[in-house]
Write a structure and sequence with these properties.
It comes from Actinomadura viridis. This protein is mostly helical. It has three domains: 2-77, Multidrug-efflux Transporter Regulator, Chain: A, Domain 2 (Orthogonal Bundle); 95-187, no CATH class; 204-307, no CATH class. It has 15 helices and three strands.
Amino acid sequence: MDGDILYTIGDLARRTGLSVRTIRFYSDAGVVPPTDRTDAGYRLYDLTAMARLELVRTLRELGVDLTTVQRVLERELTVAEVAATHAEALDRQIQTLRLRRAVMRAVAKRGSSPEEMELMHKLAKLSDEERKQIITDFLDEVYEGVDADPEFAAKLRSGMPELPDDPSPEQVDAWVELAELVQDAGFKARIRQMLEYQATHPVKPSNAMIDLVEVTSTRVRAAQAEGIAPEDPEARPVVDALAAAFAAAYGETDDADFRTVLLERMEIGNDRRAERYWQLLATINGWDTKPPTLTPYFEWFIAALRAHS
């Protein structure tokens, strides 16, 4: 019967495709001990040993270490338990490889220096919690001691970076830029200035502000299309129309005092870095709708308001 047949180590090598050296190694390690020996001391193996060897080869090819293989063979662990553990490990390895791939593509795209590549890799491989903690620390610092508008505070704290397991180079790029931005002292000082101003100068409800943003961008875009510079006389009707719209929304009278306050509000509240903050979050998180670039329109309005008031 086949079950009674014993094979030499050479026979086993030919049947399994493994080298004699590898089989001898597993045999010496006690993983696949010989079934018997010839009178001359040569090792002999039966079909059970051959099946054991096939299992060892499969587990090793899947990356299972020899100690764990031994435990499986000795029934201390089941194949299912080992498979589950190694599947989790492979998931982590795959995620790491995807991050590395994204970093390398981003580095190639940006032409980064070795120092920048190291920083990008360090920031990209942070855990979700570590990434969120960077933003939380930034918000805690700028909000400390400031009685800011709760709605605006909630909006800021709701925006947390969630880099996907398989990020694109653009998402890695955006995360690195965001991490650098929130650690910039000048940016933190500007956001704190905005929050302090809002604490003493409450903003209008969100829907009213949305309407004002739309009116401003529409009127300024039209003026720019006509080639009107902020200091040109033709800019005055645009300034008057927009100042009147803001005054109406705030329940104020459009006079010199109101325009002074409006200019101050515009200058403090308009910052390209703050707008970039939300655009970077949108890229990182893969939001379908990304915040539009509006600050240039308000920069035009600020310059025109200063020139014609």
